Amino acid sequence: MNPRNRGPLKVLAALAALTLVLFGAIGAARIWGEEPASWTPQLGLDLAGGRQIIIEPVVEGASGVGEEQVDQAIDIIRRRIDGGGVAEAEVSRLGDTNISVAIPGNPSAEQLEALSRSSQLSFRPVLVAAPVQTLPTDPGQAPVLPLPDDVREQQLEDLLEQAPQDPGAVEEGSTDDAETTDGAYPAGLSTATSPDDASETTEAPIPEAPAEQVSDPSSLEQITPELQQEFIDLDCADDTAAQATAAAPSDQAITACSEDGFEKYILGPVELTGAQVSDAAAGLEQGQGGPTGRVEVQLTFDDEGRQAFAETTSRLFAFGPGAAQNRFAILLDGVVITAPSVNNVISNGSASITGDFTTESAETLANQLKFGALPISFEVQTSEQISPTLGGEQLRLGVIAGIIGLLLVFGYSLLQYRALGLVTIGSLSIAALLAYGAVTFLGWSNNFRLTMAGVTGLIVAIGITADSFIVYFERIRDEVRAGRPLRYAVDTGWARARQTILISDAVNLIAAGVLYFLSESSVRAFAFALGLTTVIDLIVVFMFTHPTVSILANTTFFGEGHKWSGMDPERLGAKRSTYLGRGQFAAPEPPRRTRPSRAEIEGGVV
What's the CATH class of domain 3-41+389-576? Predict the structure, then answer.
C-alpha cells in the first residue's frame, strides 16, 4: 500500500463508521425502541395528513373572551405543542375566539389531553437559583463552563449551606432600591409608588420573620435528596420540563426553568395564584421627582391577594438583597416568566417590577400577568382526521425532480471532468444517503416531519453540494495548468479551495439560521433542510471527496494525467513543469523564435 494513502484511508474509514452508526441507531431504535423507528422519513401535514382540533378558550369569571385572551391562549397552545415534541403542527385563529390546531400523523392521548388542560399564573418563593451552565457557590458569581455532575452536586450542597437559615439575622431597615446584587438577578420587586404616596408606602414596618420550620414556604428543609438530584438533572433545553412543572402539586416544592432557559430554580409551594391579580400594566417608573426614564411593570392585587402578598414579601425581604430566598417566581404554564428580588415590604397590594426592560418586553410581561391571571381552560369543539393537502402525488413529483437534478449534475460532471466526475457522483450519492438517514433518524428521535418545503430544501442542496466539488476540482486544475504534478496539485489546490468552501457553507448556514428563527411553518422546514444538508456537504467534502482525490492522485491513471482522467495537462494547457522531484529542476525552455517585424527588419535589428 502506498504510504501516502494511509491518512486518506483512515478518514474514509471514519466516514464509513459514521454512516454505520447512523443507520445502526435507526435499526436499534426499530428493534428496541419504545416507539419503533421507521426506515422511511416521517411526513408532515401537507404530505401525510393528520388531525385537526378546534378548541375554544374559556376564561373563568369572565363573560366573554377578548382578543388579548385569545392571543394568550394561542401562545399557551403553541408552547404545549412544542413541549410535547410535535413538529410541523399548525396553530391559528379560527374566527373570533376559536383556535385551530392541526397535528400531523396520529397524536397520542397525552398530547390531546395537554391541549385541553387549564392554565393559570402561580406565585412561588425561590429556594435555590442557579444558571443552567453550573451551580455557583456565590449567588453573584458569573456562570462558568459546565462541570461534571459530582462537582455540580458538591457546589449545590455548598450553596445550600451558605444560604441564610435565619431571616431575622438581617437588620431591619436594610432596604436597597437597587434591583440586583452585582447584576445577579434580572429584576427587582418594590412597592409601587407615586410622588404623592411615596412616604406612606416605603416606610412599611417589617414584621418579625417566622421561625424556621418545615411549614415555612421558604424553608430549605423542603429540599429532599430526591428534589436535589432532580434539580441537578433538570435540563432546561428539554421542552417536556415545563409540562412536568405545570402538573406538579401546588403544596410541594418543585424544580422549574426560566422562560429564556438560562436559569433554573427550586421553588417552594404556591402562595398566591393569578386569580388574586386584579391588573397589570407597563409604563415608565414614577419617582418622587417624576418619571425616571426606566420601564416598569405595575402589578395590582385584590384584597385577598394584598394580605397574602404583604406576608410573603415581609418574609422574603428579611433574607436581604442578593440571597436566592429573597426572590419570588411567577410561573405561567410551568415556566418561570420572571423571578424578581424583593426590595421592600409590599403591604398596599401594588407592586412594581423593575429591571432591564424595554418597552416591548415590559408589555409582554404585563400581558402575561394580566391575561394569565384569569384561569384559561380549553373546550374541544371538533376533532377530525384531515387528508393531506398535497399528498403522495406531489411527493412523487418532488422525488422525480430531485432525481432529474442529480442525473443532470452527474452528466455535467462526466462531460466536464471525465473520470474525475465519478468522484462527484460518489460524493453526491454519499450526501444523499446521509441526508436520508439523518431525516429518518430525526423523525424518530425529534419527531421531525418532512414537508414539501423540506423536500424543496433537499433538492436545492444538490446544487450547493455540487458547487463545493466544482470549486475544489477547478483549484486542482489551476495548479495543473501552472505546471505542478497532480499529486502536488491536489494538496495545494485543497489548501486554497478549503477556505472558499468553508466561507460559502458558512453563508448558507447563516441564511438558514436567519430563516429558521425569523419565520414560521413551511419556511422553517425549508431552512432546516437547507442547514442540515449544508452540514452534510461539509462532512462529505472533508471526509470523502478530498481523501478520495488524494488516493486517485497516487495512481498511474490520474497521477500521470491520462487524457480521460480529467487532469490531462496538455488538454488543460499546462505549462512545462520545472520541478522533477528529489530536488531536481528541468532546464528552462529556450525562447521561441518569432518572425521579425517590419520595423525590426528596416531598422537592421535582425
Answer: mainly alpha
